[in-house]
Sequence to fold (455 residues):
Amino acid sequence: MFALFYEPALALMTIAKNGLFRQILLAGLCLIYVSVADAAGDAANGKALYNTTNGAPLACASGACHGTNPLAGMNKILRGANAGAVIMNAIRSNKGSMGFLTSYISAAQADDIGAYIANPSAANTVSQTIGMISFLPTSLAVGDTTTVSATATSGLAVSFSSTTQSVCTVSGSTVTGITPGTCTIAADQAGNASYNAATQVTQNIDVSAATPPTCVLSASSTLVSAGSTSILTASCSPAATSYLWVGGTCAGTSGASCTVTPSATTLYTVAGVNSAGSGAVAAVTVTVAPPGSILVIEFYNTNLDNYFITADSGEAAAIDGGSAGPGWIRTGNAFLSGGSTSVCRFYGSQSPGPNSHFYTVDPAECQGLKDQQIPAGDPRKLTVKSWNFESLDFVSTPATNQTCPTGTTPVYRAYNNGFARGVDSNHRITSSLTAIQEVVNRGWSNEGVVMCAPN
Fold:
């Protein structure tokens, strides 16, 4: 334990001038203690030195000289608060037999000890740093936004500000381009009872002049029955401030979305507008099925990453209402039921699984799965995954060597490779080759054309 000022003394007077403190003591002769406002010390390092004396043999048992808490003021320890020079003077003068520390404590270390004596709680905080600032997207145009992020080694939240307010502004983690130029974003972390404030970090991002929006127009359903609705949504980058719609009831709409109920197949178009002008036209066609047609509607579960199709309009409406559980949404894809062969629909189980459906228009494949089905009441049904026949869901036409007859539309199937991945097997069945490619890009296998739907 560090030792300081062990002898008693009588204070005669204290003189203070220009931050220099002189205390004159009487103890048989006149001693002058001088304490200059020392350089700020490292309290954390001072704590370690106070408790270990930098490897020197301890002169006192723990707590016997000045105690474990400097604020208790034991044996005049508080004279060393922020006063490294006083501590060094006591060591050099061998006060309280402290002379043995001469070889172990430097002036800078004495400053650290003084900082700890003055504020022991400061030693409980540790330093932290902020990593590199990043932007997503990495480009920024006037009127557009990007998200800024950075992390501190403490794990505490980082705050952001703009040092170039005329070029860009920040709200939370959203940076908005104001004028062309260099935008400088600053990241700060103020610290808390456990961490010191971090050194500010800055990062630049160029703000380019505004360009007209490029939009993509999507439909919640591209194939609908007469009288059914579809929601059209324009997604634009850079952001559009208004929209120019053409087609059906969307004409004159200024927002990013439009709900349509076409009575006939209709082409809809939209162009995004911002300060740079009007962008290129984006288009989507909503097809109205012939009267009496049955639609096979596709759903996607955002929680399970599973796809499902149904030709039962009542079941589709129930799924929309949440009866199948959370996470189900329509993908906007559908195809027509119709053809020469019934499509078999199978389901596994929630446990042991697979929690998924499977469809086949191949009579041999359908019968083979029925033959492998575990009978009700068999104890294996509780532990062994298997497919269970549910119904003949709709009709379609089998493909011949992955080729469809004239007047029909190819329907594709992709497999999620669930068996190899250790997850429930699931298939996506759709007439959209773009949709198939989307899941193939995520690691699914394209199984090709599996049936043919009416045009």
User: Anything to note?
Assistant: The chain has seven helices and 28 strands. The CA atoms of residues 348 and 354 lie 5 Å apart. The first helix runs from residue 43 to 52. The helical segments are 43-52, 84-92, 107-118, 313-320, 363-372, 418-421, 433-440.
